[in-house]
Amino acid sequence: MAKSSRPIDETRFGRACLPVGRVRGDLKGIPMKIAVTGKGGVGKTTVSALLSHIYAKEGKQVIAVDADPDANLAAALGISRQDIQHVKPIAELTELIEERTGAKPGTTGGIFKINPRVDDIPEGFGFRIENITLLIMGKSRSAASGCYCPEHALLRRLLKHLIVERDEIVIVDMEAGIEHLTRGTAEGVDAFIVVVEPGQRSIQTALAVKDLARGLGVKRVFVISNKVRKEEDITFLKDELIDLEFLGAISFNDSIMESDIQGRPPWQASDQTLNEALRIKSTLESLL
Ligand SMILES: Nc1ncnc2c1ncn2[C@@H]1O[C@H](COP(=O)(O)OP(=O)(O)O)[C@@H](O)[C@H]1O
Ligand SMILES: [Mg+2]
Q1: What does the pLDDT look like over 146-187, one tens digit per residue?
Q2: Ligand 1 in contact with 44 (CB < 6 A)?
Q3: pTM for this one?
Q4: Does CATH place domain 30-287 in 3.40.50.300?
Q5: How far is CA 230 from the centre of its chain?
Q6: What pLDDT digit, counting tens, does each position of 46-58 carry?
Q7: How many CB atoms lie within 10 A of CB 202?
Q8: Rounded to the nearest whole angstrom, what is the distance from the C-alpha of residue 223 to the centroid of ligand 2?
Q9: CA end-to-end distance (rounded Å), the chain
Q10: How far is CA 130 from the centre of its chain?
Q11: From 38, 75, 78, 270, which residue has the greatest number of CB atoms within 10 Å?
């Protein structure tokens, strides 16, 4: 696979790691790198799975990244529990982490490489389903302890590689904490999407995420309203999040909930939901 054809700002990354660049004009309108975030339960995983499916169906190569420690993107992509049970999250690949960083996972205060090799990880450790490669990041212990450990270095480096150095569409299903995102990575995200549902709690999270994202250099933060039941729900969310750009809404749909119970992907459950997601994708492309 070609290393990269993404535009790289050499002032940010230095000459040594400059891949052969394509000009931004070629990519205009295609959100190559999408981060999906929001409060737990709002529908981040559902949205990530829908967008991954839509791009994969168009024939694009997609890397779907499950960066939420509460990982469940595999199920939303329709991957069975049996198929996924042997796929270890990257943060648990002890030998790989030690080989790449030069230090055992969980060690702190020692010396380890902060720029480990990661470019072979999607092919080597991803789970492939049609045009989608699923990568499960897993929990890094550093998140809990606040330290900076080898596995954290590897995950951060991997995310940066996926976002700023790869050709594929990358869709990252993230927790609201956006813990693995560094400034250099955040600046490479084309569409930073916060999913909200009607209610104060998801709005509070959206506002906090917006501040975190802007602090990291994200220029545009988009919103998807999910689980809406009536027009007023959309109006309410727009009024509360007045300075954010809305991409559209996904209706509350019992079939989506039902498909989660049955372990089926959301696009199989409801044409309405799939069509709403398709409209959101078109709106996003028209705004970029
Ligand atoms: N539009 C919707 N209508 C009905 N249920 C939904 C909708 N979107 C998501 N859900 C359900 O809500 C629950 C949480 O969704 P999920 O995508 O896992 O959220 P998150 O990843 O943000 O925690 C799941 O059971 C999912 O099926
Ligand atoms: Mg989720």
Answers
A1: 567 888 889 999 999 999 999 899 999 998 877 778 899 999
A2: yes
A3: 0.89
A4: yes
A5: 28
A6: 999 999 999 999 9
A7: 26
A8: 16
A9: 26
A10: 19
A11: 38
